Amino acid sequence: MQLLDRLTAVVMAALDRLMNRLGDILDPVIRWCGPLMVALAAALIVTIPSGYTWVIAPNTVLKFSQTTHDNDDFFWSAWLGWLAHWLLLLWAMPNLVFNFAMSVGVSPGRVSAVAMSSSASSASSYIAQTDLNSSATAAELYPPRSCQPCIVSKPPRAFHCTICRSCILKMDHHCPWINQCVGHHNHVYFVLFLAYVTIACSYICAASSGPFMVCFDSPNPPEYPDNARGIVLYTFSASFAVAVAVGALFVWQLYLVSTAQTTIEYHRNNDLRAELKRMGKRFVNPLSRGPVQNFRDFFLIDVKQPWSALLYPHTIRMPTDGYTWAQLQKAGSFAVDANGAYCDNVRVGIPAGVEC
Ligand SMILES: [Zn+2]
Ligand SMILES: [Zn+2]
């Protein structure tokens, strides 16, 4: 058993070294290719809807809406298609372009030593409270950390990005397609961008599947001239690939939002859950307030900003600075009772094992 443990440790250390070496090579490549990737994303955003609008739509939904008025069934399906077409162009595309521009243009928030020191007093207050009990606490989930390259104390949820060469507030991941990290200040824009890409590309993919089959089967379809055939094949293939890839990322992000985690925290929390289980403790994410409230927290839905705000382009000003987190401060001393039930955050200071 000891030999197996030692062997596992050696393999893990070797893998760690390999990953670090790979990171040293890949990080500069990703950094240099960043502007190119943004240009490629912009090219996809322009060319896919253009191919649909100028080549496919005139031969499908727009043509039907002009020619089938005498047949009731066709009439309604044609007008629904026509409506979907204009909804896509006038609603989804402006939202998609706006949220992409904001994801690229708004900094996720870099940890600054000055801002960190001004928030230090409030941060230390929740750390001090956590010594009251021995159950899983916010301090165990978010212990005080510092970053060597940046020479700063890292606030909870912040991580160092080796590509951006900076500590990022509430870092989710580094996205090459926007050439920066997804973090505290641009995370909402990024998720909305994924949502509108998924909607637009799913629609375009579905609407261009028929023309694609025609052009795929016939090298010279009468409906489409030679140069248009290539555009039809490209529009369907590209929209299909983007809808699948971005759709999967969107669903993943929705799961993370509903559980109040970032991508990095998801992996850390899983490790921590296993570690705490071995210690006989139970893991509870102190940031999570239930799926619906987590969505409200993430998208800043309140009286001033209703859910309908997600349907139109609008700028977002985060109400918090990304250095301190109210839920963590409240949860500083949460306990787990004898039955393993989670005590209310409000009841701070209850020792572990005590009924709440
Ligand atoms: Zn750093
Ligand atoms: Zn980054």
Automatic annotation (TrEMBL):
Pfam families: DHHC
Organism domain of life: Eukaryota
All residue ranges annotated as the Palmitoyltransferase DHHC domain in the record: 144-269
Catalytic activity reported: L-cysteinyl-[protein] + hexadecanoyl-CoA = S-hexadecanoyl-L-cysteinyl-[protein] + CoA
Keyword annotations: Acyltransferase, Membrane, Transferase, Transmembrane, Transmembrane helix
Transmembrane segments: 29-54, 74-93, 188-211, 231-252
An annotated GO cellular component: membrane
InterPro entries hit by this protein: Palmitoyltrfase_DHHC, PFA4/ZDH16/20/ERF2-like
Protein's cellular compartments: Membrane
Membrane topology: Multi-pass membrane protein
MF annotations from Gene Ontology: protein-cysteine S-palmitoyltransferase activity
Name of the top EC class for this enzyme: transferase
Protein EC: 2.3.1.225
Family: Belongs to the DHHC palmitoyltransferase family.
Free-text comment about domains: The DHHC domain is required for palmitoyltransferase activity.
Protein name: Palmitoyltransferase
The species this protein was found in: Capsaspora owczarzaki (strain ATCC 30864)
